[in-house]
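Why does residue order matter? Because the sequence determines the fold. Keep that principle in mind as you read this record.
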Amino acid sequence: MDTLKSDVTICGRPIDDYIKQVVDFHGSFAPGMLLGGFMVEHARRNLSPEILFDSICETSHCLPDAVQLLTPCSIGNGWLKIIDVGRFAIALYDKHSGNGVRVHLDHRRLESWGEIKSWFLRLKPKHEQSRERLMDEMLRAGVSVLGIARISIQKEFLEHRHGAPIALCPACGEAYPSEHGARCRACLGALPYKV
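Structure:
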């Protein structure tokens, strides 16, 4: 990847190290994760380093992986929530007060960045896009193509749910949260497969 700038870092990591981590974690190079790295860095720079934060991704594509690579937030520990409204945006916020920042790719800032604009707005098919030009533009643009706003999470979303009592499903015999009802959701048809 000869287009990489040696002075570019993402969350303190040299860009070539971050790209290697992206490929190892995501399975391939993903432009959304490169841009997602800049988004996480921009959000973190605008938060106090002392806060313990949670995260929301507004898409299920690429951004959750960038958040999981660059922060302690993961789907598994519950600190990363995906609310897929289809927008390329993340929020990092204080898990106690709910105050934080939301960062998004701002299409109004893409006029000088034709390859990013084509990729983001899907103006041309993927096979016609130049990965090298796209990476070069993303590295040169950095956070300049991002919008940021202060946010406050609604109180009901801050409440951390504790585990419900466990029940044994009378149909399959497996354990499940009793709050789901008289039978587990799998036996009610929630899974796309049958055992």
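Strands lie at 9-10, 13-14, 53-57, 80-82, 89-94, 99-105, 146-152, 166-168, 175-177.
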